[in-house]
Amino acid sequence: DQIIQFKRGHNAAVMVGEVKGYNKTYVFHARQGQKVTVTLTPIGSDKGQLTFSLYAYCGAEFGEPLASESLRWSGVLPCTDRYSIDVSPNQNGIKNNYRLKYTLKVKIQ
Fold first, then answer.
1. Euclidean distance between CA atoms 73 and 67, whole angstroms
2. Which pLDDT does position 96 carry in this prediction?
3. Which 3 state secondary structure label does DSSP give 95?
4. pLDDT score at 94
């Protein structure tokens, strides 16, 4: 898992990454009531082959999905805890073992 760190004085973080054959997980901590916007932007010809899922833990071992197979999601967070984002290739990307590049932006207010 890769930890999302917000620079001091900034409320957004942008990660550039790639997946190949499986998902990549990002983790961040946030407070209850904060609004978060997550945007996944495929790079190059990879449009339509990537999605993300956002999970809230709220003290549980396994996350509860707030968003599934999305490119953009915005909402209010239900608890003060950790959250995870799985960036995943679609079935075609997995089957063909494509290397898919993207930017992932997480903004918290």
1. 7
2. 83
3. helix
4. 83
**Non-local CB neighbours of 23 within 8 Å, separated by 6+ positions:** 86, 87, 88, 89
pTM: 0.91
Burial status of residue 52 (CB atoms within 10 A of its CB: 0-12, 13-18, 19 or more): buried
Exposed, middle or buried, 31 (CB in 10 Å: 0-12/13-18/19+)?
Answer: exposed
Q: Say what the pLDDT of residue 81 is.
A: 96
Residue appearing with tokens 């339509």:
48
| Burial state string for 87-97 with b = 16 or more CB within 10 A and e = fewer than 16 | bbbeeebbeee
Predicted confidence (pLDDT) at residue 48 exceeds the cutoff of 80: no
Among 17, 15, 8, residue whose Cα is nearest residue 88: 17
